Predict the structure.
Amino acid sequence: MAKSKNYNNLSQVEPSLESQDYYSHDAFEAELKHVWYRNWIYAGRDSELAHQGDFKSLRIGSQNLLLVKNEQGEIKGFHNTCRHRGSELCSEEQGNLKSKNISCPYHRWTYSLDGELIRTPHLIRTDDFQPEDYSLYPVLVKKWKGNLFVNLDKSKLHSFDASLDPSPNHLDNWPLEELVLAHSYKTKILCNWKIFWENFVECYHCPGIHKSLCDMVPIYQRTFVSKKDEQGWEKLQGEGDPKFCGGLKHGAKSWTTDGQLQGTQFSDLNANEIQAGYTYLQSLPSVFIVAHSDYVRTVSLLPDGPEAISLTADWLLAKESLDLEQFDLSKIVDFGVEILKEDAEVCELNQRGVKSLAHKQGVLMPQEYDVVNFHKWLKSQFQAQ
């Protein structure tokens, strides 16, 4: 991939992944092993587990996980599997363990909120059975700015910061930990998880698909994500024209249906962050975060087989914003949901079309340089130990 020093776009076309990589069960199983079971996966907000005994279950591929808040206020992660004969412990997606213990519904083996085996009703004891050897299987949990991440690979304890792109401090000026969950949108998209990410990282599709978004962010009308996507960008910046410089259209302040702030503008944002109107952070393969002047949106996904994903979008705002007399949450949510639905439609079109016997491999155009970068990242996961 040849690039000039200050120019993002490809200078030549590049091959995409092979078509079968988007629907093959063998490819999907390999990606679960090398990608989803070895990276930090977004698991929601810590506010979802506010009280002792609160729990949340999470499925990553074939792996069923359980997050629980213990007596010390810590959030612990376990495989949702009894140590006796492997029964699922909690079948509900979310709730509170009123007994303050985790009890297997099959033979009633019971565990503390720290995962220790504390009761085995009706068990005929043998000398070689030691309860302390049968604690629940632990899962790494990381809390970052009010967000929860899990990792099935115990060797990745110290790798979390490196998983946040571009950096863990990129959103330091937003009070993420203090924000409250104002709305959630959940849907299933019938596409491979890689197709979703490929669509997200390029704007070649934007002019034909995202009318409202391109109006809000004029540079997207030109199929560019950044001013540096165009060769000779230094000479084309104009007099602050967002069509060349990026950022919101003149007069707009946030990604809302009318372009105006609905919540209180975050007080620590700098002039560049306010002018840009949106700041991205991503953590492959499971989440990206878009921070605006008055709210933050997280979009997370989990794979449901080789040809489907479960997607959740959460809108986070300052608590005082929700109490404003003129506050209208629908102006924030409707703008974002429209974009997600448009993306879902084309991702499903892509998934259906890529299965053609005649189509062995696609080709990537200059604006799709970040698709190439995504493919490089994906291949690196198979090379990592």
About this structure: The longest helix spans residues 329-353. The radius of gyration is 23 Å. The domain at 14-23+173-383 is CATH 3.90.380.10 (Naphthalene 1,2-dioxygenase Alpha Subunit; Chain A, domain 1). Residues 38 and 153 are 5 Å apart (CA to CA).
